[in-house]
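Please check this chain.
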Amino acid sequence: MNRRAIMTLLGGAAAWPLAARAQHSTKVARVGFLGLAPAAAWAAPIEALRARLRDLGYVEGKNLVIEWRWAENGNELSELAAQLVHMDVDLIFAYSSTEVEAARRATRTIPIVFAVHADPVGVGHVASLPRPGGNITGLSDLLTDLAPKQLETLKEAIPLARRIGVLWNPSTPSHAVAVPAVEAAGEKLGLELRMVPARTAEEFDGAFATMTRERVNGFLAVASPLTNLQRAQLAELALKHRLPGIFSRRENVEAGGLMSYGADRTDLYRRAAVYIDKILKGARPADLPVEQASRYQLVINLKTAKVLDLEIPPTLLARADEVIE
């Protein structure tokens, strides 16, 4: 072998470890996603999350891998959270209190980021909003403030209402603190409230039958993954029983519900991507303050109002961010 060939071989051999090290220097972040199926129900906010991560320099399949875990029901969340912990992901994204609770039980060390937590302090998932103090942080739409505002808005839509049903889920962690806030708001508004629990979609029929029997003038569906996912069923039951209702998500109104008032989920998911980025770069969840929603939307379905023979006050229509004709 001549000298030039030997030098070329040695040069290549010397360069190989450098090239290998360069390849390995680009760390691939592994993010676990914990949610309730069907995935299509969260398509818009999830795409907002992924788009913002791309803006921040993350390319799925290159320097980011998302481990998707979708539970068919709440009972499966704990097992799926344990799977993500066993995989030793860098971070778990669990968007609401229901998913966060399952993730919290599975790990006290892997960072957990949420996007639409209803009351992280009240539930005990963080020590305080400015200083979360543990491995959990993110964005909150603070249901203890939101649900009373929804009740007030429903009363404005039905000025003569005296009795309102409150559809809530005992399995949703945040409802333990949200329901008392709704009860306090009902007292201030001079309303009689009928608290109607429903843990599963199968219990909705009985819940609406109860509200009809109690002769409520309308109902408030306290936000939960269940009410978000079963929006078509809820809209159908509301029309069947001729009950005007208010929800937290615009998707419920698109499905035929009367109205919604709630935080802009797309904005919250987009902002959650920033938390993910900061933590992947070394920030501690304990030091990242929980931020609250800043954009809220009032959506009214006039077509549903007509079916219910309900005339929405002009002042309320004027405040609506979107009116579905």
User: Anything to note?
Assistant: Residues 165 and 211 are 6 Å apart (CA to CA).
